[in-house]
Write a structure and sequence with these properties.
Layout lengths: L1 H20 L3 H28 L8 H21 L6 H6 L3 H5 L5 H7 L6 H14 L5 H26 L2 H4 L3 H15 L8 H8 L4 H13 L3 H26 L13
Helix pairs in contact: 2-3, 2-7, 3-7, 3-8, 3-12, 8-10, 8-12, 8-13, 10-12, 12-13
Length: about 260
Amino acid sequence: MKHVRSTRYLLSYVALNLSAAMEYRAAFFSQTVGMFLNNGIMIVFWWMFFQRFPRVAGWGLSDVLLLWGVVATTFGVGTGVFGNCTRLAQVIARGQLDYYLTLPKDPLLHALVSRMSPSAWGDASFGVVAFLAAGQLSPERVVLFVLLCAAACATFVAYNVIVGSLAFWAGNAESVSTQAGAALINFATYPGGIFHGWVRVLTFTAVPAALMGHVPVDQLRHPSAPAIAGVAAFGVAAAALAWLVFNLGLRRYQSGNLVELRG
C-alpha cells in the first residue's frame, strides 16, 4: 500500500511539473526540440564516422543507435521525473533542504521530484526514436528496452544522489557533482568495447556507465536472463545505497535558515 501511495505521489508531481512547464509553452517546446536536435547532431557525427570505419571494437551504427536510445531515454526520464538529482549538491549547500524536512513525505524523494528539466523530454523522445531507428523491433525487445531503461534510470539517479550527497561532508560540492555527472554521461555514450583495463573496471564501479549503457545494449543484442537480472539488481542496490548515503549525510545537515515561498 505504501508503494502505491508513493507511486501516486510521484505521478501527481510529474503531472504538476508538466503543467507548470506548459505555462510557458514556447520555452518548453524550444528546449525540448533543441535538445532533440542536439542529440541528432551527435548521431550524424557517428553516421559519418561509420561511413569510413564500419566497425569500432565490434560496434556498428545500429549498436550506437541502441546505446543512445538507452542513455538518452534514461537521462531524459531521470532528469524529467527526478529533476533535482543533478542539483542535489546545490540544494544541500544552500540550505534548501529545510523546506522538504518540514513535510511528511520522504525528504529525498520530495527533493528529487520537486523539479523538472524541460529539455529532458527532448532527450527522452530522442532516445525512443533512436531505439526505433536501430531496427529489429519486436514486442519482446520493446519490453526489454523499457525494463533495461528503468534499471539504468535507477542507477543514473542513484549515482547523482550519492555524488550530490558529498555536500553533507564537503560543503560546496557542486563542481565535483557536476563533473562526476558529466563523466558518467561521457563514458556511457561511447561504445563499451573501446574501454579496457582499469578504465573498464571504472565503468562498472565508481562511474557505472557500463550498467547505464553498455550492458543494456549487449542485452538488447543478445539477451541473457542472468545478466538482465543483474542489471536490475544493480539498479535496486544503487537506489538503496543512495538512500542510505543521503540519510547518513542528513544527520550532519545544518539548516540554512532559509525562508522560501513555493507556489
